[in-house]
Write a structure and sequence with these properties.
Pfam families: ABC_tran (PF00005)
Order of helices and strands: EEEHEEHEHHHHHEHEHEE
Strand order of the largest sheet: 6-7-8-3-9-10
Structural class: alpha/beta
Protein name: Phosphonate ABC transporter ATP-binding protein
InterPro entries: AAA+_ATPase (IPR003593), ABC_transporter-like_ATP-bd (IPR003439), ABC_transporter-like_CS (IPR017871), ABC_transpr_PhnC (IPR012693), MetN_ABC_transporter-like (IPR050086), P-loop_NTPase (IPR027417)
GO molecular function: ABC-type phosphonate transporter activity; ATP binding; ATP hydrolysis activity
Number of strands: 10
Distance between the termini: 32 Å
Keywords: ATP-binding, Cell membrane, Membrane, Nucleotide-binding, Translocase, Transport
Radius of gyration: 18 Å
Bound molecules: adenosine-5'-diphosphate
Strand content: 25-35%
Length: 236
């Protein structure tokens, strides 16, 4: 599904402005990186796609439909999120964390009782392998996994939904460079091979250059560059 930001702006209740005049169309299957320093507005923009923030001006459309109270429940079944600090329930098993990824499409009682349909279990194992983890990791509590393993679990959880859109908010900021490359590569493959639209925030220009189909650079809430990595010059 494609994402369209139409004249999007955000002013916080205290009067500070986080975003101004954002007009972007992210086509389905694109790996689009939002590049910018801390405070540039990346997270706010990402969170508007799944309704965690609402624009003060303009609107966001997904597959042509405005993101609003009415459309959000259905949209959330197609949008997954990946977080900087992994967003896992630390005391819960890898399996429980994975199943939580399927929650928008599965009743809560299944996660609470651990009675998952066989197809869902099989899918969890397939996806776990796809991100380079083993079934043994499913039994372990999330807190017992390394940072790299936790983020891979975070990705596998996101893939559980077979999402049309993945929002990744600084997904490699807590990882060392080699692991960061692996995570970005998994996201790139997801976009390329499964047609998932991936909107990912980063603050490292070299990583954005190496992995993105497209870079949108944000500076103080404004898009100051929008184009393929090859067009981004050395300034900044
Ligand atoms: P980034 O993700 O690029 O680091 P953010 O989108 O988190 O940037 O923040 C953009 C601006 O909005 C910053 O100035 C930040 O301090 C401010 N901000 C973020 N969230 C809130 C909030 N809930 N209330 C007030 N200001 C906020
Ligand atoms: P297929 O290629 O027919 O989709 P796979 O063996 O690759 O089958 O995957 C098995 C199941 O897991 C399918 O339902 C597929 O949609 C899903 N799947 C596999 N990899 C991913 C992924 N990276 N993201 C989302 N779904 C995936």
């Amino acid at each position: 599904m494609d994402i369209r930001f139409e004249g999007v702006g955000k002013v916080w209740p205290d009067g500070t402005r986080a975003l101004a005049d954002i007009d972007l169309h992210v086509p389905a299957g694109q790996f689009c990186i939002l590049l910018g320093h801390s405070g540039a507005g990346k997270s706010t923009l990402l969170r508007m796609v799944n309704g965690l923030e609402t624009p003060s001006e303009g609107r966001v459309r997904i597959a042509g439909e405005p993101v609003d109270k009415r459309s959000l429940p259905a949209l959330r079944r197609r949008i997954a999120m990946v977080h900087q600090h992994f967003g896992l329930v630390q005391r819960a098993s890898g399996a429980a964390n994975m199943m939580a990824g399927a929650l928008p499409a599965m009743p809560l009682w299944r996660v609470l009782t651990g009675l998952y349909p066989r197809a869902v279990r099989t899918r969890a194992c397939t996806l776990l392998h796809a991100v380079g983890l083993e079934e043994a990791h499913l039994a372990r509590r999330a807190e017992r996994l390394s940072g790299g393993q936790q983020q891979r679990l975070g990705l596998a959880r996101a893939f559980m939904l077979d999402p049309a859109i993945i929002l990744a908010d600084e997904p490699v900021a807590s990882l060392d460079p080699a692991l960061g490359h692996e995570v970005l590569e998994l996201l790139r493959v997801q976009a390329r091979e499964r047609g998932t639209t991936v909107l990912c925030s980063l603050h490292q220009i070299d990583l954005a250059r190496a992995f993105a189909d497209r870079i949108v650079a944000l500076h103080r809430g404004q898009a100051i560059f929008d184009g393929p990595p090859a067009k981004l010059d050395e300034r900044d």
